[in-house]
Amino acid sequence: MLSLRERIDLLESDLRAIPPRISVYRDLPFAILRYEPDKEWDLRRELRLLEARLEGADKHVRFVSMADLLWKAIDETEGLDAIVQLEKQRGFEAAQEQVTTYLSDRDWRPLPDLLAERLKTLDPQRDVVLLVRAAAMAPAIYHMSKLLDEMQGRTEVTTILAYPGTIEGTTGLRFMDLKDREALGNYRVKIYG
User: Fold this and answer.
1) CA-based max dimension of the chain
2) Residues 6 or more apart in contact with residue 90 via CB below 8 angstroms
3) What pLDDT digit, counting tens, does each position of 87-134 carry?
4) Of residues 61, 29, 57, the one with CA closest to residue 47
5) 3 Cβ partners below 8 Å, 6+ apart?
6) β-pair partners for 99
7) What share of the chain is helix, strand, coil (3-state, %, to 5)?
């Protein structure tokens, strides 16, 4: 298995290529950079170094925090107090399900809409987006495979999802290495794993 640095080196090579080699789908310009959940700080350091190298190659790197999008959805719907009250009355699972509804239901603030809004002003020729802090969606708030599926056709900006988890086989990813969750293998994007 490749080290985190080796995975990032491969990703950097593919991002520097013209056109970038991260995806075979023009309407799904995404890739996944998998890392071990306990290596979050190493990942952050390595991504900052990657950012500096790509900026030197005339790429503009943008970090988008999945945690920020999660809190934005909560703030723009019923707010944190409503979630806290729900958890007190009906428990953690009910509160988690409500947040999932906020991020999934068109009547609230769907996560793909929030991400598409964040990406729409970016330049597909120059900008590279690094989606970080996906662990905020643990343990089961929102599946990253669902997000990538729903982003198809919504942006042309090269976007890399930093995915905390383990890989099983060639495309099976287990989010946060949670043993009670099945490894999902329906990704149609390149995995640097």
Assistant:
1) 54
2) none
3) 999 999 999 999 999 999 999 999 999 999 999 999 998 999 999 999
4) 61
5) none
6) none
7) 45, 20, 35
Which string of b and e fits 110-123 if b means at least 16 CB within 10 Å?
bbbbbbbebbeebe
Residue 193: helix, strand or coil by DSSP? coil
- Report d(CA 119, CA 100) in Å as an integer: 22
Q: Residue 24 carries which side chain, given as an amino acid letter?
A: V
Kind of pairing between the strands at 158-168 and 172-175:
antiparallel
- Number of neighbours of residue 159 by Cβ within 10 angstroms: 25
SS3 readout for 102-151: HHHCCCCCCHHHHHHHHHCCCCCCCEEEEEECHHHHCCCCCCHHHHHHHH
What is the C-alpha to C-alpha distance for residues 122 and 118, in angstroms, rounded to an integer?
8
8 A C-beta contact, residue 145 and residue 112: no
- CA–CA distance, 159 with 156 (Å, rounded to integer): 9
Residues in the chain, overall count: 193
CA–CA distance, 135 with 158 (Å, rounded to integer):
21
Render pLDDT for 158-182 as a digit per residue (tens, 0 to 9): 999 998 887 665 556 655 454 555 5
Question: Is this prediction's pTM over 0.90?
Answer: no
- Find tokens 């769907």 and name the residue: 110
Q: How many C-beta neighbours within 10 Å does residue 87 have?
A: 15
